[in-house]
Design a protein that fits this description.
single chain; 10-stranded mixed β-sheet; 10 strands; 384 residues; alpha/beta
């Protein structure tokens, strides 16, 4: 059986809204991590078969196939192509999976997969805001076929998160305890230098800007997002800027270029769920992945599940039966931020480094996505 290996995985620090990375053109963020991967692995960039990047709201400085434009802005060979993927919040996780599939099929040997997002410059749902001038009030509202199937129900991540909290009976207090833990874990990870191996500083920005001093008392004083709801801004992911990338290689490329792989792709898949709930798909996606691999959740040493909202994680833990001590051990997007298209490879970099730090074997990554889908990628750390 062929293998797809992860040789290295890096990211920028994650900038907070209007923080240190806010003025940086998205192409320059992408070029920065591409250059870093090339330099750290020592590959000849002429040998790269493709560059696959995730990006959401591909307008303005994120338009025009930012994967290709970032590669060119990095000063690298023009014959290497690039393609940009939009699977919403899982875009760069999908970039990893597309790259690995190309390698496993034998049609590629070296792939740079990653993602980039500057949410300070281009706000979330900016593409929809632009679409309003063309007569579209939402992505689905004017679709006859969508309305026939799903009616005129509100389709939003905020509503989905509220519905999940209600269905799985997760209290506001439980949500806020998880959010506080995310900040505490993130601050501890930064203090202990756990992210240093994966972070490539950008100018004066050397560390993640998101974690803040908070408390359950402060959270309890915030207004809920909707009347009668359970969610506040404290239990939601932060608006962020950043980029991330990794190098995937075939067995042949590892031998030819003298590379030292750090992990192998053990499994990759995606599944969908109710698009009105929208954010619940990590549950069936994980169930599917475990069934396909024959693994149990207890076989997984570390888990990264994107903290789009706290109920997403807590409902997943309830349904899957995961040990919370293995989940987002260095904090999650509530504390560290969620730069949309960059999040998948960012979390993969963190997962890989933490497996190496702790000596774990299997790591699982899953992300909820707009449209009610989720990816699952399982990696196996390779020993010395």
């Amino acid at each position: 059986m062929p293998e797809a290996y992860i040789v290295d995985a890096i990211r920028t620090p994650i900038g907070k809204k209007n923080g240190g990375l806010a003025p940086v053109h998205p192409i320059d963020l992408g070029a920065h991590v591409i250059n870093a991967v090339v330099e750290r692995t020592g590959i000849d960039p002429s040998d790269v078969d493709d560059v696959i990047f995730g990006c959401v709201d591909a307008i303005g400085g994120q338009a025009g196939n930012i994967a290709r434009l970032s590669w060119l802005a990095a000063g690298l060979p023009q014959h290497v192509p690039g393609v940009t993927v939009d699977r919403q919040c899982g875009s760069s996780q999908q970039a990893i999976q597309f790259g690995a599939q190309a390698i496993l099929s034998g049609t590629a040997d070296l792939i740079i997969a990653g993602g980039v997002q500057n949410m300070s410059q281009i706000p979330i749902s900016a593409a929809m805001i632009v679409g309003d001038q063309y007569g579209f009030s939402t992505p689905t509202a004017e679709s006859k076929r969508w309305t026939e199937r799903y009616g005129n129900e509100e389709v939003s991540q905020f509503r989905g998160a509220e519905m999940i909290a209600e269905k799985w009976d997760i209290s506001r207090e439980e949500l806020e305890k998880w959010a506080l833990q995310s900040h505490e874990r993130a601050k501890a990870a930064i203090a202990e230098g756990r992210f240093e191996k994966e972070i490539v500083p950008f100018g004066d920005v050397t560390t993640d800007e998101g974690p803040r001093e908070t408390s359950l008392e402060k959270m309890a004083g915030l207004n809920v997002l909707v009347e009668g709801g359970r969610l506040t801004a404290a239990v939601a992911s932060q608006i962020s800027d950043g980029a991330s990338a990794l190098l995937l290689a075939s067995e042949e490329a590892v031998a030819k270029h003298g590379l030292k792989p750090r992990a192998r792709i053990h499994h990759m898949s995606a599944r969908g769920d109710d698009p009105i709930f929208m954010l619940s798909a990590p549950i069936p996606a994980t169930q599917h992945a475990l069934a396909k691999t024959g693994l149990t959740i207890d076989d997984i040493d570390l888990i990264e599940i994107n903290e789009a909202f706290a109920p997403v994680v807590l409902a997943w833990i309830k349904e899957i039966g995961a040990d919370p001590a293995k989940v987002n051990v260095n904090g999650g997007a509530i504390a560290l931020g969620h730069p949309l298209g960059a999040t998948g490879t960012k979390l993969m970099a963190t997962l890989l480094n933490e497996l190496e730090r702790t000596g774990g074997r299997y790591g699982l990554l899953t992300i909820c996505e707009g449209g009610g889908t989720a990816n699952v990628t399982i990696i196996e750390r390779l020993g010395e």
